[in-house]
Hints:
- By secondary structure, this protein is mainly alpha-helical.
- The chain is built from 9 helices and no strands.
- The radius of gyration is 19 Å and the shape is elongated.
Amino acid sequence: ALCLLLTATAAVIFCYYFPPYFLIQEYRLFQSMMKNMKTQGWVILMQPDQAKAILLGIQAASSLLATIMSLLLARGLQAKLFYPEGFQKELLSFRIYTLTLIPFSIILLGLYQHSMLAVSLLPIWVLYMASAGYSTIASLFSGAQSMLLTALLIVVTLLLPRIFVPFIVGVGVLDNFMHFRKKFNKQSSRGS
């Protein structure tokens, strides 16, 4: 996961400074759509540079998500054949690396400084941090209950992203320092 994150980060930085032709064409199409919306009376609150940065970040995050999903599907099929319980254990033990908090903090500072590169990088880093948050929450519950809760959280996050994305990312980051999984496992083993 870290290798994919770093590769996606490098690709976004490269495309930000040296955009390929298809990104330039998509950006021009988006600009013409925004102009048409303005002529029809729509109020556009986004500057063109912001739109360019957001589109690049969303495209990078969707490419990263598609890559991760195909790899997870392949790993899931492999686990079904050779070690059925292994894939679930791997997913539930996913955590962020402590050193990844440094670039994530720099990106957040860049957002505060209104850096468009930080806006482009934010979706892929949030995807990584949110994956750790979902894994932490799912590992705190058992069996079908964890799958149902995780699916419900994903749906609620899609419906209310301003509230739940920071919450899920915060859970993933805090688990790195507070070790929720170990504490919860110790408490549940004492209760048994």
